Please model this.
Amino acid sequence: MDTSASIVQEVILEELKENNVRLFVKRDDLIHRYISGNKWRKLKYNVELAKQCNHQGILTFGGAHSNHLVATAAACEAENLKCIGLVRGDELNSESNETLKDCSSMGMNLKFASREIYRQRYERIWHEELRREFPNFMIVPEGGANYYGIIGCQEILKETEVDFDHVFVAQGTTTTSCGLLLGIDQSVQLHVVPALRGFDSIREMKELLEESGIPEDEWHDKLYQVKAHEEYNFGGYGKVTDDLKSFVEEF
Ligand SMILES: *Cc1c(COP(=O)(O)O)cnc(C)c1O
Model:
């Protein structure tokens, strides 16, 4: 996949000019039609590893509307890997919505788990079972939240020449924000906007960085560069207000 399509584009607005602010957008959304920007970054080295290890494919997890599942389906199709998507909700099927239809049309083998079973997606015991059932598949966590996902996202800002003072990013699993954090200079502030209500951004980032096995001295002090903006979840994951809708349209 070619990431050179992800240009840095300046946003021109009178308001910004008046306040002496320059605003840029890193257009990762231009990388691919299905694989929305950061989702591809998170998969890049996971896919590479799966191929290097001669895995038959990738097995991963996601909710009914997961962009990560679609991205995994598209990435695996492009790389001639098989893929299995474990979906939260055993009332669903591969026709239940556009996301799941897209996944299966790209060749993803969808399996539906009850919420109770899905809750065990980080449990080693369930992984062992899955490994026995699908021996030649590499297991990638929900949202691509692992070491390789972080390293892929580290490249987002590494490939630009612009000297940013502040970087803003939305946060789900924190993988993207962890990668950005590792890639920015000491003088840059990273603003994270969690999509979930009551989300402890810094603690979640710390946990993911720890779990992913990146040495603590590479990120411990950098966590002080993170500022969380919890007040912008607009009521919780997937929730929108009229204010938010009109802002999005206007922007
Ligand atoms: C998925 C997604 C996020 C969240 O990324 P995480 O790595 O899960 O924190 C942020 N922004 C956009 C546009 C996304 O699609």
User: Anything to note?
Assistant: The pocket of pyridoxal-5'-phosphate is lined by residues 36, 38-39, 67, 143, 170-177 (CB under 6 Å). The longest strand covers residues 82-88.
